[in-house]
Amino acid sequence: MVDISKRRFFTRNQMDESTIRLPWLAEPERFIDLCTRCGKCAGNCETKIITKGDGGFPTVDFGVDECTFCYRCAEACPEPLFLSKEEKPWDAKATINGSCLANNNVECRSCGDTCDTMAITFKLEIGKVAQPNIDIDECTGCGACVSVCPTSSINVSNLQINGR
């Protein structure tokens, strides 16, 4: 029996496109080639959400806190990885899965309460508690909603949502 997981050792590292790396990455597809894994971005992160991910490369952990878009990670990086602060930080968006308390008829609005852009709203429905709705155009992908969710039902990813 061949352990296929060890084959990755001999292949060029590929970045999972759904993984949130860092905001303002100039060339996400070249991130693994250019990042030296020095850790300066993590050490300067205002909310300490940048952690070592697969292969020691920096990744964002919204289970810790949110991204405030302070730009400290980009300023600390010695490599030419980042766009200017005036650019859009990323295409990350939040999604809510089926284990959400409100989707299971239990009153909870913790995600909406923490959403500064008010991208998460709640729609009243007959015979149910108010149901969450994410306005994808308003969502910045900051992740503020992730750590406050009591059922870990919110995910922020770079995946295209509804063909966008």
From TrEMBL:
Residues 26-55, 56-87, 130-159 form the 4Fe-4S ferredoxin-type domain. [4Fe-4S] cluster 1 binds at residues 35, 38, 41, 45. It comes from the Bacteria. InterPro entries: 4Fe4S_Fe-S-bd, 4Fe4S_Fe_S_CS, NapF, PSI_iron-sulfur_center. Its cofactor is [4Fe-4S] cluster. It holds the Pfam family Fer4_7. [4Fe-4S] cluster 3 binds at residues 139, 142, 145, 149. Its main location: cytoplasm. Interacts with the cytoplasmic NapA precursor. Could be involved in the maturation of NapA, the catalytic subunit of the periplasmic nitrate reductase, before its export into the periplasm. NCBIfam families: napF. Belongs to the NapF family. This is Ferredoxin-type protein NapF. The gene is napF.
